[in-house]
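Cross-check.
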Amino acid sequence: MTLQESEGKFGLGRMRGKKSQMKDHDILSSLYTVREMINCHLSWLRQGGRANERERARKNIEVLQKAHAQISRSLEMVQDLRREFSEMNLENTKDADIQTVWRSAVTVLKNEGLLGETQVLTRISEEFPRIECNPQELEEIFYHLGKNALQAMGRSGKLIIRAQRVFASNEDLLALISVIDTGSGVPKERVRFLFEPFFTTKPWGEGNGLGLWIVKKLVTKNHGHINIETSVGCGTMFSLTFPIIQKRETEAGTSDPSIGGPLKIATCPQKDGLNHV
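Predicted model, tokenized:
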């Protein structure tokens, strides 16, 4: 499949991604409005609120009503996003090629000017089997994980994806997909909040805290699992597991390098940008 064909095939996923990004922007704008409204009012109060008690009370009520309206609007948009992810049924297909979808997501990130000088390294065998996941939703998962990584690295560093075949506890064969960055990592006390809506480790204005929440929703919707391993100063790794469509067994006595256990961030990335265990 050519890059142009893959872009056409997954265009619908990007259209939905753009729609969700527009809602993200609207939510962020609404929250900015509330913040600035409250800041202006607090400044007015600190200066003595040049008005009598009745006028101050009237102004307090006016500001609270406007803030309530903006917050209600944001909550409605969040509920819309929740409904989209719970009711959406794009093409009903559960057949995705990891490399093709990853290339498409990276193309979107590049077109949005997010790559900068970042090196994108792909460590996936050409013969890697297809997985049970909606391709449009997998593209959005990769898009948000990639964007999150690029923002953490500041437009430089290494963004790595690798895939392995692993066995689940019930001996089912799964695809383990690792998306790794060489960014600053996340403090341990913040990790448990990363998948909550509106939580962000980025400076105000650089993130709305919805990207990883969207990722978690889509992974769960496709019967997958996601975990994070991170170390401050050494980077972050998101590990995704999805069922494999076609199980491939190796010949007796043959070692398959794509079968192995989960990766762990134990030390800082080596020169090749990978975390060696």
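The chain has two domains: 6-87, 98-243. The two ends are 35 Å apart (CA to CA). Passed to J.P. for a second look.
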